[in-house]
Amino acid sequence: MKKLIQLLSLGSALVLGFANVNIVKADVVETKSVEQQNMLQYSQEDYDLIKQKQVEKGVTPEKAEELINKLKNGEVLDADILSPEQAVKKVKEVNGELVTITYFFPDGSASQTQFTDPSVKVGELKSGKTKGYISPNSISGGSCSTVTYTTSCTNRLISYQLATYGFSFYADYTLVRYDYDSIQWAGNWNIWTAGGTYTNPSMRIIRSKETSSAKAEARLSATLNLANGGGSISRSLSLIVGGDSATDSWNAYY
Fold first, then answer.
1. Considering the domain boundaries, does residue 59 fall inside one?
2. How many helices (H) and strands (E) are present in the chain, helices listed first?
3. How far is CA 55 from CA 10, 108, 164, in A?
């Protein structure tokens, strides 16, 4: 009996000893599983916003409603997954220096880019023909100034807006006639999604100065988790600077 009491006392001491230990659960950073991604749903507010933005791009209210029904059926809109080169129709409008290009896709959805034109004239060839116009798809705002053969642009907006999400960022870059062009800064980025989420955003300068074989590039990337079971896709928006010009590139890769 004495031995049993001793064992019980030892057991109680061990229990009390463990009870006083602070057990800390490690924080785990979880990546959403496919099942979790499929649970993402559009709200009525999301549907209203998507419809409004599509109508603003020139889609008829009737067609916009069809697109909403497509989303409700778990499908993805063409504008969100196809490149501008795959558009079946392109509409260009000029209002002063503002140029708007709208791309219409097979299912009737639309994406849109805006830029100012002409932006900057870098110089003139001896023949009198102009050379080095910036032709920036989705590049606008900010300011540019030219001194002799150097054009400096600051706080320029690079933006591409689709049906249910969009990317944008700002950048400073310099165009130099007879020399290599460069990107000094890129940041103040923004990514929006309707219904879904995004992960792994990355804003970086891939190449700060143009070379003989490659142009300067700044790139905003992210993985998009689309709502209603649309899955995950990687997309990126690049600013490409070189050859005395600046343009954007919408990429189906990170």
1. yes
2. 5, 14
3. 76, 11, 13
